[in-house]
Design goal:
5-stranded antiparallel beta sheet, Helix Hairpins, 10 helices, 578 residues, alpha+beta, Beta-Lactamase, 10 strands
Length: 578
């Protein structure tokens, strides 16, 4: 359903419910009040009309009474008959004189009777002469001295009229007879017809038998009887019973109010008939006005809502479109955030594992560095010991160099000795040669000496060879001693360089040991930092997990926002938007 329809429906509901309630309450309250007022007014009107009819009847009665005593013609007739006893004078006077009863527009008949009820004169040219009315009820009542109202007379081709009878008296106050007037009801009927009750309301009169003596319908006036009107129901029965009251009935196709009351004198019944729709016309007009007001209000509300909706719906639609676009962007961003959050969550978990591995690795490094620091300390101690030994070795090398110098000097001296020995061997060899020569010269005497000389010579040769060998050996030893001295010198120099390098190395080892200790402290601090990083990373992983959940929730909310936008579009335009 479109939002405009809902707004119109809601506005109409909010407006119409109190409006209709107030209207209905007002109409009902006014209807009840007007019904009570109408009935009261109708009763008052009934009383007024009844008094009017009674006044008309009383007027005719008083007129008749006054005429019986004061009318000149009637008084002359009564006096003449009383004096002369000639009843024909009545007709003569009525035919030649004029009274108010001669008005045929008002009176259908007028005549005078004697005390026995015989007509002795009339205004109808003697048409009723010698008519005996002694049997009429009105005669019997009037002859006793009363002015009475008789029955309504309905004759063919004549207007209904009512009989009035009043006694006329002689000079001695005895009743001579009656004067009887037939008053046409046309004047009364006309007077009653002039009474307007709404548009179609009317009054009627019935006699004691229920016959209509005044009615706006001529057919009912001539032949109608209240007893035949079954639709009147209770009202008809109460009218026939000469009761006073007010009744409602469904008469002639509509709800009708009938007020009725006796009319005195005359033994008549007055009835007032008024359709309820007419005396309730103000309520009906009020109802129509309320309905018109409601209709106009509905139209104005619809128009105002449509104008309001038209002025508001476009910005709302633009806002909804903007919200829809933003919701789609939010959905995409939320999806991307959700994907990124999952990746970040995975990375955080991997980072946590990596930090755990790094933490373990740094622990191993810390242990290795700590061990290295210990080893470096031990190496420094060993280097210090080695430095001491190297110092001793350097001392030993110095002493060895001195010894080598002495050995070299001794080898040179040995070479000189070998040279002496070689010279001695050469001299020995020369002596042996000379001895041999001398032995040869001596012959056999020198044969033994020759052998000795020969042996000495061999010994000299051997000594010479041994001297040569020794010399060569000593020279070799000397060379080697010289080479050894050179090597000892180089070794000494090398030891000195080594001592320098060792001193530097020792210093470096000390620095390395110090650096290792510092590094161990740093690594320990790094371990603590890594532990804190591991805690933060775990918290970050937990936060990332929550963020992922929030991103999923945001994605869900963005999808819900899109659904709400679609619902708003459907609410606003009454159609689905794909």
């Amino acid at each position: 359903m479109k939002l405009s329809t809902k707004l119109i429906g809601g506005s109409l509901t909010v407006t119409l419910i109190p409006l209709v309630f107030v209207g209905i309450f007002t109409v009902i309250a006014a209807s009840d009040a007007l019904d009570d007022f109408g009935k009261a007014h109708f009763v008052t009107l009934r009383k007024t009309v009844a008094e009017l009819v009674s006044a008309k009847l009383a007027e005719q009665m008083n007129l008749l009474i006054n005429a019986s005593a004061n009318d000149a013609v009637i008084s002359d007739i009564v006096r003449t008959i009383d004096t002369t006893g000639i009843t024909e004078m009545a007709q003569f006077r009525l035919s030649n004189k004029t009274t108010i009863f001669h008005d045929k527009n008002t009176y259908e008949i007028f005549f005078i009777t004697d005390a026995q009820g015989n007509v002795i004169g009339d205004t109808s040219a003697g048409a009723y002469l010698k008519t005996d009315i002694s049997a009429e009820a009105y005669f019997k009542d009037a002859i006793r001295g009363n002015t009475v109202i008789g029955d309504v007379v309905k004759e063919e081709n004549k207007q209904p009229y009512i009989i009035f009878a009043s006694p006329v008296r002689k000079k001695n106050n005895d009743i001579m007879g009656l004067i009887v007037a037939g008053w046409k009801l046309d004047a009364l009927n006309k007077k009653i017809r002039e009474l307007k009750f709404g548009k179609t309301g009317y009054a009627f009169l019935t006699d004691k038998t229920g016959g209509f003596i005044a009615h706006p319908d001529p057919a009912m006036l001539m032949n109608g009887n209240i007893a035949a009107l079954k639709e009147m129901g209770t009202a008809a029965r109460e009218i026939l019973s000469f009761q006073e009251g007010i009744s409602e009935c469904h008469y002639q196709g509509t709800d009708t109010l009938i007020a009725f009351a006796p009319v005195r004198p005359g033994n008549w019944m007055l009835g007032l008939v008024l359709p309820k729709s007419e005396y309730m016309a103000p309520i009906i007009r009020m109802r129509n006005i309320v309905a018109a007001v409601i209709f106009v209000t509905v139209c104005l509300i619809v128009l105002m809502v449509l104008l309001f909706f038209k002025s508001v719906s476009k910005p709302i639609r633009n806002s909804i479109d903007g919200v829809g676009e933003n919701s789609e962007q939010i959905a995409r961003v939320a999806n991307q955030i959700s994907s990124g959050a999952r990746i970040l969550e995975s990375g955080a978990i991997n980072g946590t594992d990596l930090l755990e591995n790094t933490f373990s690795f740094l622990k191993e490094i810390f242990l290795a560095v700590e061990q290295n620091a210990d080893n470096t300390g031990q190496a420094d101690d060993l280097m210090n010991e080695f430095n001491r030994i190297l110092s001793d070795t350097d001392q030993f090398m110095t002493e060895l160099t001195g010894a080598m110098k002495e050995i070299f000097a001794g080898s040179e001296e040995s070479s000189e000795i070998i040279k002496y020995i070689d010279a001695i061997a050469f001299q020995t060899n020369l002596l042996a040669l000379n001895a041999t020569v001398e032995a040869a010269r001596a012959g056999e005497a020198g044969a033994g000496f020759s052998v000795v000389a020969h042996e000495i010579r061999n010994l000299g040769v051997k000594v010479s060879e041994s001297a040569k060998n020794t010399s060569a050996l000593i020279e070799g030893i000397g060379g080697k001693v010289h080479e050894g001295r050179r090597l000892v010198d180089k070794t000494g120099e090398s030891f000195k360089e080594m001592a320098k390098i060792f001193a530097v190395t020792s210093e470096l080892i000390k620095k390395i040991a110090h650096a290792s200790q510092t590094q161990a402290k740093k690594i320990d601090q790094s371990n603590k930092a890594l532990a804190e990083m591991d805690r933060v990373t775990r918290e970050t992983a937990s936060d990332v997990e929550k963020f992922t959940s929030s991103a999923d929730e945001m994605n869900f909310r963005s999808e819900r926002l899109k659904e709400i936008v679609l619902e708003l579009i459907y609410l606003l335009e009454g159609r689905q938007n794909s």
